[in-house]
């Protein structure tokens, strides 16, 4: 598409947004510089509702929104099921049911540091910590590449610069306030960004719902385009020039959903886990998760609106039709440039740039923590004081961004990097991360070798077998990771019983921990078992609750009344169930009980 010329009011809005973001971030620099606990966790003093808004904003990025919108445009509602590979964040249901409080009980700064809590500080625990830190650093650089590619492609349509220059400019701004203000800057600029996102989404949703030719547009798209039930095969609209990248299969959906659930069972990691390490208490962890899921549903209502408006534009403008048929990834910018008037367009651009910035700042702040806490402080300079650690945090943040920006030049398109991060590479991380919670015999060597073998498999498949179907590469990586995890754990000595006993009493997980549960008093054992039985129920209730909400929001925008009514009815019923099975059982504010508390 041709570049869009912005009006003066649009430029002023964009400039105002960037100036305000920098001011908020810089104003918080003093708080972040006090210690690395402040820099990476906000001193564990940030209110849960602020963290929840930040989490939602971090999942609402330009690149992912462009990809998901393209799937909605190409295959209608079936694009929602494609989004289950990552964009739906289905792991939130596990975090709500129990994992959020487990993460809070861990009392660590990073997921890599957690490895020594679980595996001890011997060679196995240190190896697991080092491998986890290295893996997350690699994944963080991948996310920076993802940000640069998608954001540059989107912003360059509206600003008179190349995609590379646009991406570098936005990274420079995000890097400035994130480097100086740490998690404080990330969180509070995210709140500003979330407000902008809501304004943008609200305008687009209203525009789509009250589109004059609403029924005619949907009728022309066909019944398959609005069909909610997932299909075993889903063909894209016949007029797409390159339909292969939009094909999906029922088996892929099963893999994506399974991977998302395993990801949740593993604790997520990255900036998502960081929010739970930073939250004040277990009650706050639960409330934050519920808010996070509800706010994230707005993204899918907005995406549904953009896809519908894209269909309408394609029917009325031959040039637009040509552009979108050739590259559906342009649906988002094309719709914005043609639908929104001056002023509103500037607000929309500011909101979507804000969404991208919130993902970017969260990612690099969490990623830098793995270098500073788990490599630099743990292995290189254990005697470093707080000032030295904060300075190292600055450098780590800068280097991660520079490395990601340099490597972004070698990536062809957004879907390429998203497939890698959400597919085999993501699977290589989540398998050992999940096993660590539930099986006492799993040790540090098993963790390190499983993650290493999985990542190596993902890389080799990408290099030597790039044309293998997505679900096959993910499945192969899954099997390799599981087999190596079990084999390596049995081939090496188990973790010391004192370490395992302390971990079990602090976290109180379910799974294969019978011998450690048997050591507790009967009353304590019964209480833990009751808590964990309820947790399993709440996983499935929360999953249905989240999916019903998202489906309801999408079908509301498309005025597809029957599935909308069913979805919102299901959402309300499951909300009532969660009220009794989850909300009323949340611990009191500030209440915690771990291995050192009275009664243990």
Task: Kindly report the CATH topology of the domain at 8-422.
Answer: Sodium/glucose cotransporter
Going across the major beta sheet, what is the strand order? 1-2
The count of strands amounts to 2
Q: Can you count the helices?
A: 27
The CATH superfamily of the domain at 8-422 is identified as Sodium/glucose cotransporter
β-strand amount: under 5%
Supply database-style keywords.
two-stranded antiparallel ribbon; 2 strands; globular; 600 residues; mainly alpha; Sodium/glucose cotransporter; disordered C terminus
Condensed summary:
This protein has 600 residues and is an all-alpha fold. The chain has helices spanning 8-27, 29-32, 36-41, 48-58, 62-75, 78-82, 92-106, 111-119, 123-155, 163-209, 214-221, 223-226, 250-265, 270-278, 282-316, 318-326, 331-339, 344-380, 386-407, 414-422, 424-438, 444-464, 470-491, 497-507, 514-517, 522-557, 561-581; strands at residues 233-234, 248-249. Mean pLDDT is 86; it is low at 593-600.
Helices and strands in order:
Layout: H1 8-27, H2 29-32, H3 36-41, H4 48-58, H5 62-75, H6 78-82, H7 92-106, H8 111-119, H9 123-155, H10 163-209, H11 214-221, H12 223-226, E1 233-234, E2 248-249, H13 250-265, H14 270-278, H15 282-316, H16 318-326, H17 331-339, H18 344-380, H19 386-407, H20 414-422, H21 424-438, H22 444-464, H23 470-491, H24 497-507, H25 514-517, H26 522-557, H27 561-581
Antiparallel strand pairs: 1-2
Model description:
This protein is mainly alpha-helical. The protein has a domain at 8-422: Sodium/glucose cotransporter, CATH 1.20.1730. It has 27 helices and two strands. It has helices at residues 8-27, 29-32, 36-41, 48-58, 62-75, 78-82, 92-106, 111-119, 123-155, 163-209, 214-221, 223-226, 250-265, 270-278, 282-316, 318-326, 331-339, 344-380, 386-407, 414-422, 424-438, 444-464, 470-491, 497-507, 514-517, 522-557, 561-581; strands spanning 233-234, 248-249. The longest helix has 47 residues, at 163-209. The chain is globular.
């Amino acid at each position: 598409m041709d570049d869009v010329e912005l009006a003066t009011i649009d430029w002023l809005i964009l400039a105002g947004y960037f100036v305000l973001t920098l001011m908020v971030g810089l104003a918080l620099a003093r708080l972040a510089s006090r210690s690395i606990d402040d820099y990476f966790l906000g001193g564990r003093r940030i209110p849960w509702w602020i963290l929840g808004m930040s989490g939602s904003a971090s999942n609402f990025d330009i690149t992912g929104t462009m990809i998901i919108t393209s799937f909605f445009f190409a295959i209608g509602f079936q694009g929602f099921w494609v989004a289950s590979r990552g964009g739906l964040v289905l792991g939130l249901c596990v975090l709500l049911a129990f994992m959020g409080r487990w993460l809070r009980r861990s009392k660590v700064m990073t997921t890599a540091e957690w490895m020594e809590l679980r595996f001890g500080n011997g060679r196995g625990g240190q190896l697991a910590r080092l491998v986890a830190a290295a893996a997350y650093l690699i994944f963080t650089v991948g996310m920076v590449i993802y940000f640069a590619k998608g954001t540059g492609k989107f912003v360059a349509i509206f600003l008179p610069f190349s995609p590379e220059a646009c991406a570098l400019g936005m990274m420079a701004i995000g890097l400035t306030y994130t480097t100086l203000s740490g998690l404080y800057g990330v969180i509070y600029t995210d709140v500003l960004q979330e407000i902008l996102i809501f304004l943008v989404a609200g305008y687009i949703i209203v525009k789509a719902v009250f589109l004059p030719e609403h029924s005619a547009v949907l009728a022309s798209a066909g019944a398959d385009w609005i069909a909610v039930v997932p299909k075993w095969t889903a063909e894209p609209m016949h007029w797409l020039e390159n339909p292969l990248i939009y094909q999906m299969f029922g088996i892929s959906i099963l893999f994506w959903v399974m991977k998302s659930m395993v990801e949740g069972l593993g604790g997520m990691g990255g900036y998502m886990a960081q929010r739970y390490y930073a939250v004040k208490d277990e009650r706050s962890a639960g409330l934050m998760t519920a808010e996070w899921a509800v706010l994230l549903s707005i993204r899918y209502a907005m995406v549904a609106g953009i896809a519908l408006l894209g269909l309408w534009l394609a029917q009325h403008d031959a040039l637009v039709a040509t552009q979108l048929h050739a590259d559906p990834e342009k649906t988002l910018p094309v719709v914005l440039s043609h639908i929104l008037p001056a002023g509103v367009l500037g607000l929309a651009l500011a909101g979507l740039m804000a969404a991208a910035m919130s993902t970017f700042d969260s990612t690099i702040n969490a990623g830098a923590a793995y270098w500073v806490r788990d490599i630099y402080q743990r292995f290189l300079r254990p005697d470093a004081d707080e000032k030295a650690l904060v300075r190292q945090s600055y450098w780590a943040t800068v280097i991660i961004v520079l490395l990601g920006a340099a490597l972004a030049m070698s990536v062809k398109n957004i879907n390429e990097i998203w497939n890698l991060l959400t597919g085999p590479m993501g699977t290589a991380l989540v398998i050992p991360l999940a096993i660590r919670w539930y099986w006492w015999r799993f040790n540090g060597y098993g963790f390190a070798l499983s993650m290493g073998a999985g990542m190596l498999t993902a890389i080799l498949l990408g290099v030597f077998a790039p044309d293998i179907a997505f679900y096959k590469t993910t499945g192969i990586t899954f099997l390799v990771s599981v087999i190596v995890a079990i084999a390596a754990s049995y081939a090496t000595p188990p973790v010391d019983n004192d370490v395992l006993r302390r971990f079990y009493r602090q976290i109180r997980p379910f799974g294969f921990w019978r011998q450690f549960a048997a050591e507790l008093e009967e009353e304590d054992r019964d209480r833990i078992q009751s808590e964990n039985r309820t947790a399993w129920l709440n996983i499935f209730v929360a999953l249905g609750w989240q999916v019903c909400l998202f489906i309801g929001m999408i079908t509301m925008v498309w005025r597809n009344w029957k599935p909308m009514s069913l979805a919102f009815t299901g959402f309300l019923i499951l909300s009532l169930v969660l009220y009794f099975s989850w909300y009323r059982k949340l611990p009191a504010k500030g209440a915690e009980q771990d291995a050192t508390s009275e009664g243990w």
